[in-house]
Structures are given as structure tokens and as C-alpha cells.
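By convention, the C-alpha cell line describes the chain's fold. To illustrate:
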Amino acid sequence: MTISMYQASIPVFLRALDNLAAIMDVGAAHAEAKKIDPLVLTGTRMYPDMFPMSRQVQIACDMVKGGAARLAGIEPPPRGDTEKTFAELKERIEWTAAFVRSVTAEQVDGSEDRAIVLKTPFGDLNFTGQQYLLGFVLPNLYFHSATAYNLLRHSGVELGKRDFLGRA
């Protein structure tokens, strides 16, 4: 049995976004229950030179937004990085999921060998579609989602592996 590029990307992206949204709900409920300023949690970092939790969520969203768009051969829709609160972060996740849902299997399937070039401050990164998905988008999605989860967990939010993985 083969797996299509669509099956390996879009449903995976949507599940990760759903789980990230649920984690934001747990974080918000924790802040309310413990009378903690929510901005303390969304602004928390493990080390001063690392991005705060809010930026981790933004980057995870950007990974799936860009991944879905580039695999489909379209431009990612622009979005500023202004979210600070749990509600704003959850809205960004929902906005990203709505865009990802708009990408069809017909657009993504067959993108395994599509040339994808990412312009970065450090130079261009060149991929095929499959390399881009498996070696860049998915690792970055999981890294930034796990980092957001870990920052909240480290701050005392009662989260477990099931929260990160979601329900099957």
C-alpha cells in the first residue's frame, strides 16, 4: 500500500493543530484556576535566547501553512506574528487549520518531486516536495509544538503525552 503526499501531510497537519489548540485550552484553564497572568505562560522561555511559547505556536502554524501551500504549488497566505494571549494563539491555530483544509488532494498529490526553494537569511534551501515534507516541515512542526507543550508543562500546566498526541 502506498501513501500519498496528501495523506502524509494535510491530515497530519490538522491533527497536530487540533492537539496544539487543545493544549492552549489547558494552558488557559490552568492560568485561570491558579490565578496566573496568562501572559506569563505564553511568554515563558526555557532560556533567554530562545523564543517564548507564543512564538513556538506561531512557528508551528507557519510550518503547516507554508508546507501545505508549497506542496500545493501556491503561495502561503500572509499572517503577522502578533498573538500573545491563549485566545489569540488559538484563533491563529484555527485560521491556519481553515487554510490547510482548503488545500485539496489534487493540489498536493504528485508533489514528491516538485522543486521547492525556501529563501532564508542564511541562503536558499532547495528541496524536492518529499524531502521538504519529511525532512523540514514535519520535524519543525513537531519541534515547535513539543517546545510549546514543554514550556507549558515546565510552568506547571498539567499536560501529558496524550495531550500532545491527541486521541486517535
